[in-house]
Amino acid sequence: MFFYSYTGSAVLWLPRHDYMLKTKGLANISSDKAPSSPPPAPSGSQPQVQRLTISSEEAGQRIDNYLLRILKGVPKSHVYRILRSGEVRVNKGRISQTYRLETGDELRLPPVRVSDERKNLPAPAAEFEVLLEDASLLVINKPAGVAVHGGSGVSFGVIEQLRSSRPQAKFLELVHRLDRDTSGILLLAKKRSALRDLHQQIREGAMDKRYLALVHGVWRNARQHVKLPLHKYTLADGERRVRVQADGQAAHTIFNLVRPLGEFSLLEAELITGRTHQIRVHLAANGFPIAGDDKYGDYALNRELQKADGVRPPWRRMFLHAYQISFAHPDSGERITLSAPLPQECTTFLEGLAQLARTGAGANATDRISNTEAREG
């Protein structure tokens, strides 16, 4: 069942969901221990081996995420290199980058030099649209173009900016991630206990996350399951990529057709698993690239979309939006469902496509793209 959602003059078809939010009886604010961090080396000294002990508040984190948090100023690629090489030891043994820390674990970190420039340059404080905040949670509506954390050439992201704007916060961590060019709902934990509970819900499939994606192509099925294994790999410059590969991790996405738009289709993506770039790769592998996807999309199409076409405005970002999330509150156990409407630029672009589809003016877009490729090739 679908209903019409109006944003300004734009019209969007969305699935019917219950967006009622019940937040009564949430627990009062409770304190958390401040996360440990390696002691700073004296100015001008050589980096030294560091030994750390994991507290109960730090247990449950993946080792790579833990190191990325405490080794401020160390390039992300270097953090993963010392993990892969075995230079990071836990209880005197080698571990993989997916190892989850346990209370009492003894860590040995090799000497690492922190860039003084990055270490001393604080992230600018920033706030984002808040969808829900209480003693345990902070849920925001992330704009496109903003990374969720620093790394891979990005000095800071949402988490660093929020920490700068909330210096009194004893604990603030990402529960999950969104790609830089993906907009929508981002969930953060304000207590370690909440983070552990929400991570468990993700592992057990108890958290429901829905996205809206605009793809190039005519999607035929009202509801379609895509199950393709995904393999992560890293390019020479440290950039993460994903491809479909037989021995990859199992990945499952359900796609629901929301609205046909001429040679495009608006889809709802329901994540059953949560692999890196899962929606983008599953769609591209099936011949339906997301509009504006610069990693797995159709590059000629993306160039064409950057130009206005009559009533259709130019499009210069990836059309992927995390619009709904549902989970059990980590304190009360009450089921919470939150939604974030599509950004205005998305609804305006959809309306432009809809008008082109109604008039048939966009029927020759694919021919124009082919002609552009022929001229350039």
Rounded mean pLDDT is 83
CATH fold naming of the domain at 2-18 and 193-376: Pseudouridine synthase
- End-to-end Cα distance: 46 Å
- Tell me the name of the CATH class of the domain at 2-18 and 193-376: Alpha Beta
- Poorly predicted tracts of residues: 1-35, 40-44, 365-377
Description of the molecule:
This protein has 377 residues and is an alpha+beta fold. Among the domains are: 2-18 and 193-376, Pseudouridine synthase, CATH 3.30.2350; 50-110, Structural Genomics Hypothetical 15.5 Kd Protein In mrcA-pckA Intergenic Region, Chain A, CATH 3.10.290.10. Helices cover 22% and strands 27% of the residues. It is built from 9 helices and 18 strands. The protein has helices at 63-70, 76-84, 116-119, 158-165, 192-203, 278-285, 299-305, 344-359, 365-376; strands at 2-7, 10-15, 50-53, 89-90, 93-94, 106-109, 129-133, 137-142, 173-174, 183-189, 208-216, 223-227, 230-234, 240-244, 252-261, 264-271, 320-328, 335-339. Strands 7, 8, 9, 10, 11, 12, 15, 16, 17 and 18 form a 10-stranded mixed β-sheet that branches. The longest helix is centred in the C-terminal third of the chain and has 16 residues, at 344-359. The radius of gyration is 22 Å and the shape is globular. The model is unreliable at 1-35, 40-44 and 365-377 (pLDDT under 50).
Helix and strand arrangement:
Layout (H helix, E strand, L loop, with lengths): L1 E6 L2 E6 L34 E4 L9 H8 L5 H9 L4 E2 L2 E2 L11 E4 L6 H4 L9 E5 L3 E6 L15 H8 L7 E2 L8 E7 L2 H12 L4 E9 L6 E5 L2 E5 L5 E5 L7 E10 L2 E8 L6 H8 L13 H7 L14 E9 L6 E5 L4 H16 L5 H12 L1
Parallel strand pairs: 10-17
Antiparallel strand pairs: 1-2, 3-6, 4-5, 4-6, 7-8, 8-10, 9-10, 11-16, 11-17, 12-15, 13-14, 15-16, 17-18
